[in-house]
């Protein structure tokens, strides 16, 4: 599962719209769209805020699941 897919999954599980999540993070809704479509990676401070909102660890949000090497960078 990609980072964007995880963001969308956890946002939906919390019952948050893209606009509501954007408001909580202090960013534009379109930025959330770009994150969920994997067009842009969120910066570390936004990932940390998302982890708090989603009540998960930022490590889990960033983890690469088995078979998904698209997020591995060197």
Q: What oligomeric state best describes the polypeptide chains here?
A: single chain
CATH superfamily: lambda repressor-like DNA-binding domains
The tally of domains stands at 1
What general form does the structure show? globular
CATH class: Mainly Alpha
Mean pLDDT score, rounded?
Answer: 90
Runs in which pLDDT lies below 50 for 5 or more consecutive residues are none
CATH architectural designation: Orthogonal Bundle
Structural class: mainly alpha
What fraction of the residues are assigned to beta strands by DSSP?
under 5%
Spatial extent as radius of gyration: 12 Å
DSSP summary, beta strand count? 0
Work out the helicity level: 55-70%
First CA to last CA: what distance? Answer: 19 Å
Order of helices and strands: HHHHH
| Individual helix count | 5
What's the main sheet like?
A: none
Explained architecture:
The protein is built from 5 helices and no strands. With 74 residues, it is an all-alpha fold. It has one domain: 434 Repressor (Amino-terminal Domain). It is globular and about 25 Å long. The two termini are 19 Å apart.
Summary, kept brief:
The protein is 58% helix and 0% strand. The chain has 74 residues and is an all-alpha fold.
Topology:
Layout: H1 3-13, H2 18-25, H3 29-36, H4 44-54, H5 58-62
Helix pairs in contact: 2-3
List the defining traits of the structure above:
single chain; 74 residues; mainly alpha; 434 Repressor (Amino-terminal Domain); 5 helices; globular
């Amino acid at each position: 599962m990609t980072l964007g897919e995880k963001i969308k999954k956890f946002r939906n599980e919390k019952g948050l719209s893209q606009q509501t999540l954007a408001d909580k993070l202090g960013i534009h809704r379109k930025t959330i769209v770009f994150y969920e479509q994997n067009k842009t990676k969120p910066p570390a401070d936004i990932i940390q805020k998302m982890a708090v909102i989603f009540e998960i660890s930022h490590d889990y949000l960033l983890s690469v699941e088995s078979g998904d090497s698209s997020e591995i960078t060197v």
